[in-house]
Amino acid sequence: MTQLSDKLTNFIQQMPKAEIHIHLEGAIQPKTVLELAKRHDKLNTLPSDTEEGLRRWFTFTDFPHFVEIYLTIQDLIRTADDFALIVYENGADMAAQNIRYRELTVTPYTHTSYQDKGLTFAELFEGLENGRLRAKEEYGVEMRWVFDIARNLTDNPDGSYDPTPAEKTLEYALEGKAKGSVVGLGLGGYEVGYPPERFAHAFEKAKAAGLLSVPHAGETVGPESIWGSLTALQADRIGHGVRAVEDPSLLATLKVKQIPWRLTPPATPA
Predict the structure, then answer these.
(1) What is the CATH number of the domain that holds 43?
(2) Which range of residues forms the domain containing residue 65?
(3) How many whole angstroms separate alpha carbon 242 and alpha carbon 226?
(4) How crowded is residue 186: how many other Cβ atoms within 10 Å of its Cβ?
(5) Which of 51, 219, 224, 246 is catalytic?
(6) 125 in a domain, yes or no?
(7) Are 216 and 260 in contact (CB under 8 A)?
(8) Is 219 a catalytic residue?
């Protein structure tokens, strides 16, 4: 690996930056994971009670392994104060890297419905906003939210499609947009068996309301997942999309449409 010069490293560090794809729950540091586990008496759900042990645990072997770890950490975020803490610490990280603006993906349905926490969306959103506003005041950083549909949580017991997770996530996103800080609807989780076309109903309403369409596609499924996101979900950006390289015509389309680099400036919340 080429070592960057001190001059270039300093230039990158001092440059004001924007980051438009990062997962709030996936960006929690091991120290905070331990703090949350102790706060809720859940250390026994973790494979280690040390920061170094958790760093080793964070070495993902494949996408299902990542999802398993992600859901374990999500279970530790149980109150408005928990959300405020992790958002505030995210703001501190932004300031340390001179990142002035971030769009953070959050998956609210897993916290309010999938995992039994007794947490309401109002409490979740209060925590997000308290952390965001505190970080803005102390560090001068701006954050906005992308609410993410967890595609692999949309199965009924018989294997048929359950629209509830998508519809609830859309409802939350529209409420957050009305309050000024939610800018997009996302689609995440395990792609295999969950094509983007299944979620067109939610994205059509999101786009009509002025939200960005920012689904993940082309991670574990090939170009057809990206094509589906462009046509069925009217995608403004694609999360990852690495397998677009397998289809030259798709690459040409992404270039013409300037995807995934299209960014619509959000409204400024109070």
Answers:
(1) 3.20.20.140
(2) 17-257
(3) 10
(4) 28
(5) 219
(6) yes
(7) no
(8) yes
Please check whether residue 7 lies inside any domain of the structure: no
Burial state string for 55-72 with b = 16 or more CB within 10 A and e = fewer than 16: eebeeeeeeeeebebbbb
* The amino acid at 51: E
Establish if 270 belongs to a structural domain.
no
Tokens of 9: 């490293």
Q: Domain tally for the chain?
A: 1
Indicate whether 42 belongs to any domain: yes
Kindly list the distances between the CA atom of residue 166 and the CA atoms of 74, 120, 196, 198, in Å, as whole numbers in the listed order.
19, 17, 12, 10
Q: Tens digit of pLDDT per residue, the chain (270 long)?
A: 578 898 998 898 899 999 999 999 989 999 999 999 999 999 999 999 999 999 999 888 887 888 888 889 999 999 999 999 999 999 999 999 999 999 999 999 999 998 889 999 999 999 999 999 999 999 999 999 999 999 989 999 898 999 999 999 999 999 999 999 999 999 998 899 999 999 999 999 999 999 999 999 998 899 999 999 999 999 999 999 999 999 999 999 999 998 975 444 444 444
Q: Do residues 214 and 237 make contact, with C-beta atoms less than 8 angstroms apart?
A: yes
Q: How far apart are CA 259 and CA 251, in angstroms?
A: 9
Q: Which pTM value belongs to this model?
A: 0.91
